[in-house]
Amino acid sequence: MRMRTTRLPAALLAAACATAAVAATATLGARPARAADGGEAFTIGDPRITESSGLAASRQHPGVYWTHNDSDDGPYVYAVDSQGRTVATVTLRGIEPRDVEAISLGPDGRLYVGDIGDNLGGKWPEVWIYAFAEPAELRDQTVQVTRYKVRYEDGPRDAEALMVHPVTGRAYIASKKQGGGGLYQGPEQLSPNGVNTFRRIADAPWTTDGAFSPDGSRLVLRGYFSATLYRWKDGAPSGGESLSTPFQRQGESVTFSADGRALLYGTEGKDSPVWRAPLDGDRLPDSVRPLPTATPTPSAPPSSGAAAPPSEGAAAGPSSSPADGGDQALGVAFLLAVAGAIFGLRRRKRDS
User: Fold this and answer.
1) Cβ of 34: how many Cβ atoms within 10 Å?
2) Which of 19, 281, 285, 311 is most buried, by the most CB atoms less than 10 A from its CB?
């Protein structure tokens, strides 16, 4: 999704600061989140990819990641290697995408592309998911896709996260809404005929992308400023730990590495960097064993929460709200810093 930068009027800035203070108070006493370790994995250098909005680690091609632009591009999916080079461009035949926001790899070896964005806040009565077999050969090619029609049981909404469970193959969508988003479950099997109705099974924080771990035991949902990691039990999220994310110009994508040992965070923009954040302890998927010996910790990426920001709400299940305090706390810090800078400039201007 594209964002426009505007100048805040003084009254609006004051209101934002007041809201920030309230949000900061609400996060007091919560479990602190650790800063994301790791560093920049690669930079997407293809001049055609300026709005990378989804990310999925390939299973067939080690070190390769699938991505796509947001809107105004066309029916294209790109394979990018660990050096940030585009090694294949896949054209999806017979579709005219509207607002592609996410990509996920299913257990059937197919890539699922979510044309699920709705920047008008819920205008479109239906959205679509496109699926095609992950190419065995990395080269420019055109593929036939299966098109699935999607509706939500409680009406249209904006969404940017599509996650296909790597064991059951069931598709999930997280809507994008501050203080009222939801995690929606699709039917047991998507049908290319008729409508696939997605039903709300849990609350969700402000979400710009999400991903399951390769074994399906963890789910991560990310926003612009933070991410939340859940255990996946009995077809629903359980618990919820707030993670710090690298500071990115517009954090839009996340995926687990193919071995499940790390998260990779992407952003929109030209020459967009992809950051790698290793996982440890109980953050690791159930099938991944901790490394036998400790390894030197790489320098941490510039994080949106440099000093372990507090998170809101440690627990979230099918009927509870997942922690979105990370976004609030980091947004608070940003707004207060901007406010301080503006007021300081005004004071110096009056004193001069």
Assistant:
1) 17
2) 311
Averaged confidence pLDDT in the chain = 80
Assigned token pair, 88: 């294949």
Give the 3-state secondary structure of residue 346: helix
Contact 137, 87 (CB under 8 A): no
Q: Say if residues 227 and 326 touch (Cβ distance below 8 Å).
A: yes
Largest Cα separation within the chain, whole Å, is: 70
Q: How many alpha carbons lie under 13 Å from residue 84 in its C-beta half-sphere?
A: 18
Between CA 60 and CA 165 the distance in angstroms is 17
Residue 167 to residue 242: CA distance in whole angstroms: 25
Instruction: Please write the tens of the pLDDT for every residue from 259-307.
Output: 999 999 999 999 999 999 999 999 999 999 998 865 555 544 444 443 3
User: At 180, is the pLDDT very low, low, confident or very high (cuts 50, 70, 90)?
Assistant: confident
For residue 317, pLDDT beyond 50 = no
**Contacts with 16 (C-beta within 8 Å, 6 or more apart), sequence order:** 8, 335, 339
Check if the beta carbon of residue 104 is closer than 8 Å to that of residue 160: no
This model's pTM is above 0.90: no
Backbone angles phi, psi at 52, to 5 degrees: -60, 115
d(CA 290, CA 352): 59
Predicted pLDDT at 298: 53
In this model, does residue 154 exceed pLDDT 60? yes
Phi, psi angle pair for 345, to nearest 5°: -65, -40
How is residue 280 written in tokens? 């440890």
Asked whether residue 5 carries a pLDDT value surpassing 90, the answer given is: no
Judging by DSSP bridges, how do beta strands 110-115 and 236-244 pair with one another? Answer: unpaired
- Rg, C-alpha atoms of the chain: 20
The number of beta carbons lying within 10 Å of the beta carbon of residue 241 is 22
CB atoms within 10 A of CB 126: 11
